[in-house]
């Protein structure tokens, strides 16, 4: 039997940053346990193509044969990521010819959220560009893998688009994101990735949306009044539509376009009562606020209080001088919410609202920062 190629083909790359030492090196037999733990982790199985179930024998074959073979035939420059002497994951560049390569990475659960994988990838990319002559590196991830996308964003990758039914995983094709980084690009974010601050105001808690909010979103957006006045909503509105909306909420954060909150009672933080958020920001000048209310929270003042809270946030934290809102002329409940939140009507856009029956006139409101 021919012995596997030696892992000595892999160089040792080291980074010392923030009191942490990250080493990239070739795989060794003793890495099988860390590889096994990583590949049995639910998040690794959800977002990568590792076999399920994943066995000890598979881990031993991966570290002892597959990765060294990649160095031997030039198909993959694969490294173990070691943090302060402990197995922390894997990172690879897969050459594709013409000075191009694909980057791939996966973190052991213990190191996620520490920044260590990003630190390792910076070292790997520098080595690829400077020592291997790469000009472009491509990043792929299944649509919805926000952790991978945020890591790529921090490294300076530009998310160039998405492809439908592109990435294979266990017999299925999944939608994919794709991004690129060139050797001449700065290794820093190209755009702003917005955060969702938690706001407490007037007996309400405004928090980020969660995957567990799907049922409440679907209930609110299936309601006849919501369907009547928000004509762009799918009908019928399903859990799948709610998940797509939640993904769009995150997409707008990732591209710097909008921030949206789930409005809850502090005593029942898992039960969304309403949605409120700002968009259409002109920095230091204006933004628009939109909202909807779950039917079981209507008439309680929740929407008015949430609208006031986000307007105050826009004035104090975004430093805008004006915020605006709008509602269809016939939507008296929504108009009452806006007016009670201190907004003043300043005009009507003819046929400006898309409602279930077609188009309707849209009343335009705004409010200036008076310090109140």
TrEMBL record:
* SUPFAM superfamilies associated with the record: Acyl-CoA N-acyltransferases (Nat)
Superkingdom is Bacteria
**Where would I find the N-acetyltransferase domain in this sequence?**
22-182, 204-369
UniProt xrefs under InterPro entries: Acyl_CoA_acyltransferase, GNAT_dom, Ribosomal_N-acetyltransferase
Concerning Pfam families, the annotation shows: Acetyltransf_3
Record PANTHER family: ACETYLTRANSFERASE, RIBOSOMAL-PROTEIN-SERINE ACETYLTRANSFERASE
Q: What's the protein called, per UniProt?
A: GNAT family N-acetyltransferase
- Which organism encodes this protein? Nocardioides kribbensis
